[in-house]
């Protein structure tokens, strides 16, 4: 079913991994999609090509979400190509695995700049430019509740995303805009697999009640549901999508 027909979505960090699957899933549900990327232009264009080949509409848009002006440009691209913006998915983020004692100021600042500031800039722009009845979906992480060593700055950043989700839901409710966050568990993405040793990956797999890591394909349908009219009575919530990991 085309539950998102005639809707326009912006997906930050949409070129790879979970973000790419979100873009394809939204397009399959009928949405016109702005596929944001910061560095991976070819990957973003591949996502766009896949969507178009499957009968959808999409454009790629370069922007560093850590820069407020770039986030404004994302909305400009969406409006120029597709009209009003109905859905914002704040997916872009970076990871940092290092004990707090060994984390430099620059490393901490970069995590906060991308994960927290990037989400904040998206929310602020959405408050001004998202259509009434729209949807905002932020990406958090189940790591926030898992007490994992070396995850301190990352969990701090995602904890902030969850709190902004709750506050923004109250601020946007009068316009019929819902605001939620999805909290994935360990997922088989290039970023996760490439930044962790085999022993840690296996340990994370065994934490799941279902005995496996998440797949990027597990996330897209959940985002589509939260973006649809069927989820109109759900707002201010943090939805774990983690196979019972946390």
UniProtKB/TrEMBL annotation:
Keyword Lipoprotein: no
Alphabetical list of PROSITE patterns matching this protein: ADH_SHORT (PS00061)
Coiled-coil residue windows: none
Ketoreductase domain: residues covered: 7-185
Keywords assigned: Oxidoreductase
Keyword Oxidoreductase: yes
Classification via Pfam families: adh_short_C2
SMART domains referenced in this protein's UniProt entry, alphabetically: PKS_KR (SM00822)
Molecular function terms, GO-annotated: oxidoreductase activity, acting on CH-OH group of donors
Top-level lineage group: Bacteria
NCBIfam families membership: PRK07231.1
PANTHER family according to UniProt: NADPH-DEPENDENT ALDEHYDE REDUCTASE-LIKE PROTEIN, CHLOROPLASTIC-RELATED (PTHR48107), RE15974P (PTHR48107:SF7)
Record family assignment: Belongs to the short-chain dehydrogenases/reductases (SDR) family.
UniProt protein name: SDR family NAD(P)-dependent oxidoreductase
Source organism per UniProt: Bremerella cremea
């Amino acid at each position: 079913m085309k539950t998102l027909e005639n809707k326009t979505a912006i997906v930050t960090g949409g070129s790879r991994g979970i973000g790419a699957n979100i873009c394809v899933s939204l397009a399959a549900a009928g949405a016109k999609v702005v596929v944001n990327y910061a560095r991976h232009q070819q990957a973003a264009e591949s996502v766009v090509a896949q969507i178009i080949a499957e009968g959808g509409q999409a454009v790629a848009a370069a922007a560093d979400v850590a820069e407020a002006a770039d986030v404004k440009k994302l909305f400009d691209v969406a409006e120029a190509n597709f009209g009003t913006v109905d859905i914002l998915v704040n997916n872009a983020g970076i990871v940092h695995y290092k004990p707090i004692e060994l984390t430099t100021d620059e490393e901490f600042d970069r995590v906060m700049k991308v994960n927290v500031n990037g989400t904040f800039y998206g929310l602020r722009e959405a408050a001004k430019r998202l259509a009434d009845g729209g949807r905002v979906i932020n990406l958090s992480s189940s790591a926030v509740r898992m007490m994992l060593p070396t995850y301190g700055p990352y969990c701090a950043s995602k904890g902030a995303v969850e709190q902004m989700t709750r506050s923004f839901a109250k601020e946007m409710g009068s316009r019929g805009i819902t605001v939620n966050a999805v909290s994935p568990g360990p997922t088989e993405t290039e970023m996760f697999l490439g930044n962790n040793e085999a022993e840690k990956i296996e340990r994370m797999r065994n934490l799941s009640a279902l005995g496996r890591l998440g797949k990027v394909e597990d996330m897209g349908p959940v985002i589509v549901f939260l973006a649809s009219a069927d989820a109109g009575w759900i707002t201010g919530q943090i939805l774990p999508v983690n196979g019972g990991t946390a």
